[in-house]
TrEMBL record:
Pfam families listed in its UniProt record: DUF2568 (PF10823)
Alphabetized UniProt keyword annotations: Membrane, Transmembrane, Transmembrane helix
Taxonomic source organism: Curtobacterium citri
TM segment ranges: 32-51, 57-76
UniProt keyword annotation of Transmembrane helix present: yes
Lineage summary: Bacteria, Bacillati, Actinomycetota, Actinomycetes, Micrococcales
Name under which the protein is recorded: YrdB family protein
Length: 135
């Protein structure tokens, strides 16, 4: 008999407690690179939104709205917890579009080398992530 509270609806067995000595799931270098690429992509969109407009209020609006729109699109179609079930091809299309948009932001600002390096690193990160997801 355990002292764990149970819901009156839960008629199954009481799950064992979480083992505190069990090691946590390891975070690989590819996961860290993936997080850095996503964060830099959102920063790229925000920087473009701020830098590309002469008047301050459209710059602020685009600096907030552009990365917010990209994050919502990524969540809806590409996220592992996406509410919309998307196949692999759809996920590739969405991620490619977001990476190219972030790279194009740097090109439009006048720093094409930063955009090219970002696109190449994001492509490498995306290929590794898809290989791990589909394996």
């Amino acid at each position: 008999m355990t002292n764990a509270p149970q819901s009156p609806v839960d008629w199954g067995e009481v799950p064992p407690p979480v083992d505190a000595d069990r090691p946590r799931r390891r975070v690989s270098g590819w996961t860290v690179l993936r997080i850095v690429v996503c964060a830099f992509g959102l920063f790229s969109l925000a920087f473009w939104g701020y830098w590309s407009w002469i008047l301050p209020w459209p710059g602020y609006l685009f600096a907030i709205g552009t990365p917010l729109f990209a994050a919502v699109v990524w969540y809806l179609f590409r996220s592992p917890r996406s509410p919309i079930d998307t196949d692999v091809v759809g996920k590739v299309i969405v991620e490619t579009a977001l990476v190219i948009a972030a790279g194009a932001c740097w090109v439009s600002i006048g720093l094409p080398l930063v955009g090219l390096v970002f696109v190449l690193v994001a492509a490498l990160s995306g290929v590794v992530a898809f290989r791990r997801e589909t394996a």
